[in-house]
Automatic annotation (TrEMBL):
Entry's Gene Ontology cellular component terms: cytoplasm; nucleus; plasma membrane; vesicle membrane
Domain remark from Swiss-Prot or TrEMBL: A pair of annexin repeats may form one binding site for calcium and phospholipid.
Organism: Oryzias melastigma
PROSITE patterns from the UniProt entry: ANNEXIN_1 (PS00223), ANNEXIN_2 (PS51897)
UniProt-listed SUPFAM superfamilies: Annexin (SSF47874)
This protein's UniProt keywords: Annexin, Calcium, Calcium/phospholipid-binding, Repeat
Cross-referenced InterPro entries: Annexin, Annexin_repeat, Annexin_repeat_CS, Annexin_sf
Name of the protein described by the UniProt record: Annexin
Family named by the database record: Belongs to the annexin family.
GO MF entry, a single one: calcium-dependent phospholipid binding
Amino acid sequence: MEPIHYSSNDMWWGTLGTVRPFSNFHPDQDVMEIHNALDRKDVGTLVNILTNRNNAQRQVIAAEYKQTTNKDLIASLKKALSGDLEDLLLDLMMLPEHFDAQRLQDAMAGLGTDEEGLMEILSTRSREQLQHINNAFQQRFKKDLEKELRGETSGDFAKLVVALLKKADSPALVQKDVEALAASLSGKKANAAPWIEIMTSRNSAHLNNVLMELELQLGQPVEQTLEKRFSGDFQMGLKVLVQCIQSPEVYLAKRLSTMKTSMVHGIMVSHCEEDLLCIRAAFLKLTGNSLYSALQKHFKGEHLQALLGICRSED
C-alpha cells in the first residue's frame, strides 16, 4: 500500500500540527491491517497507518493489538523493521513525554554530553510539559532528571539547565528586568545570575519585550552581546534560549536544515502534532526549499515515505 500524502489544501483548518486525529478511526480495522502487514512484511502499510494516526490513536492501536493478538506491538515492529525506519516508527509509538525523556537521556549518554540537544528540549517545552517529562524520565530510567543534568553539566550552564527544568512564571516589570540584565553586563566580568533567574522565570511575551528593550538600550542584537560577554556552554545555552523565545520555529528549522537523522526524527516526531506547520514555513524562508523537498534529497525508501507522511505536504 502506498503512503497517503495530502496537498496543503487538505490540511486541518486552525491547527499548527501536521499529524492530527484520523477522522475515520477504527482501531480494530487498523490492528487487523497491521497484523497482516507484519506477516507479509508489508512495510508500506505500517508506514501509512502509523503516520496517519495521532499519538493518542496509536496508543489505542497498541492496546487493541495486545488484546487481539496477545502480542506486544512494539516487539512485533522490532522484529519486522530495521535501521532508521525502525527507529522512526518506534519513536512515533512512544508517549510524547517519554519520547522527550528518551531524547534527554540520549543527549547525556556516552562520553560526551550534547549540550545543545538538552537546550533544544528544555527551551521549547512548557512548564507543564517539562513536569510530565520529568516524571516520565523517573519512570523510564529510574533516575532523577535534575540530578542527571547536574552530573552531566557544570558551572553556570548547569544552573541554567536546572532552572529551565523548573521553569517558573514569576510576574515582573519589563523595565526592571531590562535594568537588571543591563547592569549584569556593566562589570569587567558579566554576571550570569540575573540572566539565569530572569530568562527561566518569565513568560515568553514578557521576555520578548525585555529583549527588544534591551537591544534598543545596548544598540545591538542580544545574541551579539552574549557572544561578547559570555563564553562556552553558557553562552551557547543563552543564545539558544534567546532564539527559542524570539522565534522557536526558526531555531528548530535551523536544526532541521542539518538533515542529521537523529535531529530530524527528534524535531519532526516531537512537534508534528503541535507546530510543525510553523517550522515548515520557517524552513522554507530560511533555506529557500520546502522541508518536504529537502527530505527527498537526503533520505530514501520507506524511511523517506514515513518522514514525508509526518511532514504531510509540499509548501
